């Protein structure tokens, strides 16, 4: 996880802030379990305080909730310009897909491991890698795999093109996501118990190795990114 020296802004207030460094956000005010991460430059909204230990926030780009430790308050500053979502057409996004794919391939070349909640390199979870890859070209996706599935335009597996998302999980919910490359292959960050403990390339086929087969058995469908996420909370 990311760590920073303890510092604190005096008299923190509700409102919109910008991250001065990569930050961890947690799923409770105890700040023990990582929920997501916020890269330097991202905007967050402080919405409440929990005693003297944490502040409740949500990230402006994707509306994702979390808790920021008081020890990291010195690493945010009041936003001088409020976050405004940028609009992309599906044709704009299509032109950017080679850069999105390149981001994931470069990330794979770095030493990395699977980190639940990871959205800041080198260690990602599955949907964190997808979000970071698209964010690298200015396109925002929702944070979690099931949210990304609902956000994208559903397509048939036979219609997959490079840059589409591939979803895995149970009949009820998507729990994993990868980025389609070509010829049946996709790149994703998978866990240690049922994957490669980091970023790797697998194939959508029963003929693949044990990891590929395991995910293929959980294949739910695919989606195409045709827009950038627009925040709902203000």
Question: What are the SSEs and their pairings?
Answer:
Layout: E1 15-19, E2 23-26, E3 34-38, E4 43-50, E5 54-59, E6 65-69, E7 76-78, H1 90-109, H2 126-135, H3 145-151, E8 153-155, E9 165-169, E10 174-182, E11 185-190, E12 198-203, H4 210-216, E13 219-224
Antiparallel strand pairs: 1-4, 1-7, 2-3, 4-5, 5-6, 8-13, 9-10, 9-13, 10-11, 11-12
Helix pairs in contact: 1-2
Provide a compact summary of the structure.
This protein has helices spanning 90-109, 126-135, 145-151, 210-216, and strands at residues 15-19, 23-26, 34-38, 43-50, 54-59, 65-69, 76-78, 153-155, 165-169, 174-182, 185-190, 198-203, 219-224. The protein has 234 residues and is of the alpha+beta class.
Provide an overview of this structure.
The protein has 234 residues and is of the alpha+beta class. It has four helices and 13 strands. It has helices spanning 90-109, 126-135, 145-151, 210-216; strands spanning 15-19, 23-26, 34-38, 43-50, 54-59, 65-69, 76-78, 153-155, 165-169, 174-182, 185-190, 198-203, 219-224. The strands form three sheets. It has a six-stranded antiparallel beta sheet with strand order 8-13-9-10-11-12, with helices on both faces. A hairpin with a 5-residue loop joins strand 5 and strand 6 (65-69). The two termini are 29 Å apart. Residues 3-8 have low confidence and may be disordered.
């Amino acid at each position: 996880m990311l760590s920073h020296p303890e510092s604190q802004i005096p008299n923190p207030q509700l409102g919109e802030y910008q991250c001065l460094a990569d930050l961890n956000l947690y799923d409770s005010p105890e700040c023990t379990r990582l929920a997501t991460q916020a890269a330097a430059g991202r905007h967050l909204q402080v919405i409440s305080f929990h005693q003297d230990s944490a502040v409740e926030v949500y990230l402006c780009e994707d509306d994702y909730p979390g808790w920021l430790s008081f020890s990291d308050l010195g690493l945010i500053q009041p936003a001088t310009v409020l976050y405004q979502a940028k609009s992309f057409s599906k044709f704009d996004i299509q032109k950017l897909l080679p850069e999105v794919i390149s981001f994931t391939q470069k990330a794979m070349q770095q030493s990395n491991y699977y980190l639940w909640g990871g959205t800041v390199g080198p260690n990602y979870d599955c949907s964190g890698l997808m979000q970071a890859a698209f964010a690298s070209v200015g396109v925002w996706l929702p944070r979690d795999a099931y949210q990304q599935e609902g956000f994208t335009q559903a397509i048939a597996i036979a219609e997959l093109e490079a840059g589409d998302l591939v979803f895995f999980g149970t009949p009820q919910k998507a729990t994993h996501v990868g980025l389609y490359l070509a010829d049946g292959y996709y790149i994703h960050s998978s866990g240690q118990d049922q994957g490669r403990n980091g970023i790797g390339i697998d194939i959508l086929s029963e003929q693949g190795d044990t990891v590929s087969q395991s995910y293929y058995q959980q294949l739910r469908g695919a989606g195409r990114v045709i827009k950038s996420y627009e925040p709902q909370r203000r």
